[in-house]
């Protein structure tokens, strides 16, 4: 079945909905294709807030936010992207308010703001209240608001349609091919412009805050076409996931005064970040927690967790501003944050890398500025390099709305002046071959078994602390798993709602993301941001102030070709000194 739209958006999370909304406002026809119902997208799991220098609680300026973003990204952030972001996010938050987003409020009626890790006043002197929030359900409220606005503005939704191919001919994207989960039919969406916004790939790790659907689908598809993935070695582990489960415990819990404590009930962050303590950037807090655990000061049955202490906070804060987290702790751990310290541990949370784009969302084909005509990306799947080597808390929701909007505007502008590009005679042939190959394979390997090995070994070998030998071992493990994947059999050969088939396809996507990530991490012989190597412990700006571009070797499956892209600098050069992480 064939469809035609001026702009097709893949993904219906915050970035996809913002992109679709602004494309629709651009007087073009828009379809949003999502493997989930939009309001179930993973943006709904974002709890703590969206950072913007509104200054509702204390003095704040966009320049301070820009600096914190660059410093938090360990100076790998593209500074033009940081400037655009820090300026645009102020208007974007006010616009969300005007759309009806129910922000929490200060006493004077302005949008409530609280402290968050890594956000400071006066270029690092003290913590600042910058996170705008709707209790601890901010992402959920963004989804609801943007979905309603898209319905109002005429976006057409194709829900539970799983995109399995990008149609790129002669350097131009002409559409996508999607699989309808309800019928098993393939659909070709012919488009003048395509926007990719399908989220991250956290399911490559064993302990993750990511939903089961975050399997890096479009990153893998882009990579399979010989196009680059940028900075895949940088993956953020959120310091606080519920112990063993990985369910996110918002950074807002520390912004409201929560304290991390070890088995001795010591507030250990005073030793690692003496100025802002528990509100240091996420990479610092996560490594500090793991250090405490490694040195025997962990808590819980396996001594592999840390306490988060809220018992000193007022009931109205715990059950009001942190209602969702309180409910999760009570439900899943049987702990009451009003009187019990809650067990948390770092959880794989967010990909800083992904499909490279410029500041208007257009996808890049190489490290020299080449572009794919008609193809855009935004959100966690994309890498405009706002986050550099480590994303600040709240900047993910800001990224979604700022660069989702820019991608939507750019795609609509392009679509208004472009014709529909040429499609291949059978645009669905590659997808059909992929699915029929899995259905007909009588191999004995089980996708769940391969996925389990992948997740456990990635957690162990390419996790918070890394070293060359472990990562080299992981390169070989991934090659072995990809060989096993060739023998994967799918027991269910039915057409409708075939979960076995989808799991098998998504496993292939995860293996590609793990391959690109591990090769990029092995190659970068320094420590920077979330990439912490025990065998190269310092930041090396002389050799590594550059972005990694990982390409699949189309002539030798399993090999990764590495290229580079320069960091965009814009005046923040005084910090380019031997690595120092003092907060």
Automatic annotation (TrEMBL):
Cofactor(s) the protein requires to work: FAD
Domain FAD-dependent oxidoreductase 2 FAD-binding stretches: 6-397
Top-tier EC class: oxidoreductase
Organism from which the protein derives: Deinococcus proteolyticus (strain ATCC 35074 / DSM 20540 / JCM 6276 / NBRC 101906 / NCIMB 13154 / VKM Ac-1939 / CCM 2703 / MRP)
Family: Belongs to the FAD-dependent oxidoreductase 2 family. FRD/SDH subfamily.
Known catalytic reactions: a quinone + succinate = fumarate + a quinol
Binding locations of FAD: 11-16, 34-49, 217, 380, 396-397
GO molecular function terms attached to this record: electron transfer activity; flavin adenine dinucleotide binding; succinate dehydrogenase (quinone) activity
Protein name listed in UniProt: Succinate dehydrogenase flavoprotein subunit
InterPro entries (alphabetical): FAD-dep_OxRdtase_2_FAD-bd, FAD/NAD-bd_sf, FRD_SDH_FAD_BS, Fum_R/Succ_DH_flav-like_C_sf, Fum_Rdtase/Succ_DH_flav-like_C, SdhA/FrdA/AprA, Succ_DH/fumarate_Rdtase_cat_sf, Succ_DH_flav_su_fwd
Active site: 282 (proton acceptor)
Cellular localisation: Membrane
Cofactor remark from the record: Flavinylated by SdhE, about 5% flavinylation occurs in the absence of SdhE.
Gene Ontology terms describing biological process: anaerobic respiration; electron transport chain; tricarboxylic acid cycle
Positions of post-translational Tele-8alpha-FAD histidine modification: 42
Main location: membrane
Binding site for substrate: 238, 250, 349, 391
Keyword Oxidoreductase attributed: yes
Residue span, Fumarate reductase/succinate dehydrogenase flavoprotein-like C-terminal domain: 451-583
Membrane topology: Peripheral membrane protein
């Amino acid at each position: 079945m064939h469809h035609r739209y001026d702009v097709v958006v893949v993904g219906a999370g915050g970035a996809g909905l913002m992109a679709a909304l602004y494309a629709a406002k651009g007087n073009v026809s828009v379809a949003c294709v999502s493997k989930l119902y939009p309001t179930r997208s993973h943006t709904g799991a974002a709890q703590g807030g969206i950072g913007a220098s509104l200054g509702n609680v204390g003095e704040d300026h966009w320049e301070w936010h820009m600096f914190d973003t660059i410093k938090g990204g360990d100076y790998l952030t593209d500074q033009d992207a940081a400037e655009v972001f820090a300026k645009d996010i102020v208007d974007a938050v006010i616009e969300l308010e005007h759309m009806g987003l129910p922000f929490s409020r200060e006493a004077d009626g302005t949008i409530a703001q609280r402290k968050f890790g890594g956000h400071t006043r006066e270029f690092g002197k003290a913590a600042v209240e910058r996170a705008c929030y709707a209790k601890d359900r901010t992402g959920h409220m963004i989804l609801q608001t943007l979905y309603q606005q898209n319905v109002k503005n005429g976006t057409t939704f194709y829900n539970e349609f799983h995109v399995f191919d990008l149609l790129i001919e002669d350097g131009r994207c002409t559409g996508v091919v999607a699989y309808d989960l309800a019928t098993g039919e393939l659909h070709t969406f012919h488009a003048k412009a395509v926007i990719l916004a399908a989220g991250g790939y956290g399911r490559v790790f064993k302990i993750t805050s990511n939903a089961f659907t975050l399997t890096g689908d479009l990153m893998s598809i882009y990579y399979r076409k010989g196009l680059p993935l940028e900075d895949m070695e940088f993956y953020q582990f959120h310091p606080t996931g519920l112990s063993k489960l990985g369910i996110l415990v918002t950074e807002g819990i520390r912004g409201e005064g929560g304290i991390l404590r070890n088995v001795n009930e010591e507030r250990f962050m005073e030793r690692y970040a003496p100025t802002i303590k528990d509100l240091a950037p996420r990479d610092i807090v996560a490594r500090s927690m793991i250090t405490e655990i490694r040195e025997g000061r962990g808590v819980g049955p396996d001594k592999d967790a840390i306490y988060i202490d809220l018992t000193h906070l007022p009931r109205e804060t715990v059950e009001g501003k942190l209602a969702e987290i309180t409910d999760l702790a009570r439900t899943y751990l049987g702990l009451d944050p009003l009187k019990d310290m809650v067990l948390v541990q770092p959880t794989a949370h967010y990909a800083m890398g992904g499909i490279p784009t410029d500041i208007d969302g257009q996808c890049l084909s190489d490290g020299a500025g080449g572009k794919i005509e008609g193809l855009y990306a935004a959100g966690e799947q994309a890498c405009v390099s706002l986050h550099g080597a480590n994303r600040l808390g709240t900047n993910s929701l800001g990224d979604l709305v700022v660069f989702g909007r820019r991608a939507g505007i750019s795609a609509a502008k392009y679509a208004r002046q472009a014709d529909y590009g040429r499609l291949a005679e059978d645009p669905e042939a590659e997808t059909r071959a992929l699915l029929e190959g899995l259905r007909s394979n009588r191999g004995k390997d089980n996708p769940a078994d391969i996925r389990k090995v992948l997740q456990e070994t990635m957690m162990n070998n390419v996790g918070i602390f890394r070293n060359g030998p472990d990562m080299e071992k992981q390169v070989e493990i991934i090659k072995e798993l990809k060989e096993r994947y060739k023998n994967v059999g799918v027991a269910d050969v039915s057409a409708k709602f075939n979960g076995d088939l989808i799991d098998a396809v998504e496993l292939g996507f995860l293996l590609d993301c793990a391959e690109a990530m591990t090769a990029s991490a092995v190659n970068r012989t320094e420590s920077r941001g979330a990439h912490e190597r025990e065998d190269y412990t310092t930041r090396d700006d002389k050799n590594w102030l550059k972005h990694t571009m990982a390409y699949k070797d189309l002539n030798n499956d399993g090999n990764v070709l590495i290229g580079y892209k320069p960091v965009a600098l814009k005046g923040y050069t005084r910090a380019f000194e031997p690595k120092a992480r003092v907060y």
